[in-house]
Amino acid sequence: MIDSLRTICRSSAKPRAMKEVMVVVPRFGSAKVAQREVDSLVCNRILDGEEQYLVKWKRIVAPNAYSWHYLPELTLCLALLQDYLKARRERIHSKTSNLKRKSPHAEQRAHLYEHDPQSRSPSVQSSSSESISAKAQALSLGESYNCTVYPDGDHIRVRSSLRLPCAERIPTAEMMAVAATSSTRHASHKIRTHILKRLKALPGPEITYQNIHDASDIPLRFEFIEACVLREGLTRVDPETIVGCQKECRPNMGKNIGCQLSICECLEFAAVQEGRLNEEQWVRYRSNPGDTAGLPKRFPYHTSVAQRDGCLVEFYLRGRHPIYECNHRCNCGPGCNNRMVQHGRQLPLEIFKTKDRGWGLRCPLAIRKGQFIDTYRGEIITDEEADRREARSGKGKESYLYALDKFEDELREREEAPYVVDGEHKGGPTRFMNHSCDPNVLQYTVSYNKYDQKVYDLAFFARRDIPANEELSFDYLDKDEEDNEAGTGVLTSQVDDVEVWTPDDNGTVVPCRCGAEKCRKVLWT
Ligand SMILES: C[S@@+](CC[C@H](N)C(=O)[O-])C[C@H]1O[C@@H](n2cnc3c(N)ncnc32)[C@H](O)[C@@H]1O
């Protein structure tokens, strides 16, 4: 049921300029504050044993307007709530470390209290927080500031108040002090439940997440997507240029026969399989190694169970040759052995908080050497847009930009720049995969249109057998087997075969914490 708004004038007898107005914001039943109308959440407190958050409305909606809301009214603003809780945690953390408090465990205890579903309910708080809650009520002139709030259908709306603006800066220092010690446990729980619901709704094997280190969650602003999103300014190869295998390949070519045994045209640009060349082909290949049309090529995947069915073959694992899969124009059909990455992720994954490198990724099942894990997805943007985004985010911040530069040399000849995948705001679980100088995962170019050198899939395969729950990692700088350099820094020493990098003149060093024996010490500069 939606309560009606009550406005109480404490003393209507006061002169207008002195009038102190308290607007009591009632519970609005199922009506919700719409995120698009909210600037941010700026404070929290406990009122009547329940968590409340102070909404700062967008200037355009009602200038300088604030109102307190209970959690059920904020379920459309969970991303903003998550931003607020993060800022609050950082504030508390910096205060506790600045003050060098007597008990170094105080912050830890606060986290435990927020996390533990069995912990005391906010309504049964200690006497100190009870008095703080009482103080919070005493402090507030009213439940909203410079505005009136009212239900309008499914939404809670705000109207600028004609009354005198609130003299104090909201939130006041006292409000912030109350906020720092008031529980936000229910808000954290709501956010967590929402994330789990989102993950459950994703197609394919389950994706879970776990954090035993702190109170942070996967960012709600991050959107899980199933395919890359192409942003404006991109030019694509004409889809008409996509050709499939037509000549020799067909579905059901015979027992265990498929594109791997035919001269599949999809593999035109793949490496030549020298062992299958006849004498005439050998002579031609030796005299002109650049002309490989019509020659049998290296097939990327094992095709028999005994040989790790579906896993990448050793030849591809040793190098970083592009993989060319069959496509919708091919004669071979959907059951073809040359289709693996296009069928999507087949493994469950877990996003988990590491001790010192933010979120990471692991698989609750053992992964076989050469097994496909997932692709790197995101927004595909131009090189210039990537520069702009990088400049905006600032140095030292996490980076989720991945250049599609496998065919950089060919593109340079045409005076074109490679596109970039940005996984920061949209992507798949592999966006959480960390770097290692000795990785257990390798990244590959996977193309469905052999003539398109700008847009293709980035696919991850296991470099070796990986036990269940071992963190998955790839080498951020490992572009190619013959092009393996550590960023733009300067190689300053090489101790016991370990390269130590320091930044170049304009570089900021991001230290690597992969812990590998031969760690390069620098993630990038
Ligand atoms: C693609 S993201 C990986 C996911 C990230 N950990 C997160 O929490 O979202 C890349 C960022 O993770 C961190 N990172 C990844 N590997 C690291 C490593 N070996 N050492 C230190 N930081 C690392 C860096 O902040 C880097 O910018």
TrEMBL record:
Biased segments, Basic and acidic residues type: 104-118
Subcellular location, record wording: Chromosome
The Chromo domain, residue ranges: 36-96
One GO cellular component, as annotated: nucleus
Gene3D superfamilies named among the record's database cross-references: 2.40.50.40, SET domain
Region ranges (Disordered): 95-129
Primary subcellular site in the record, as a coarse category: nucleus
SMART domains linked to this entry: SET
Protein name: SET domain-containing protein
UniProt source species: Eremomyces bilateralis CBS 781.70
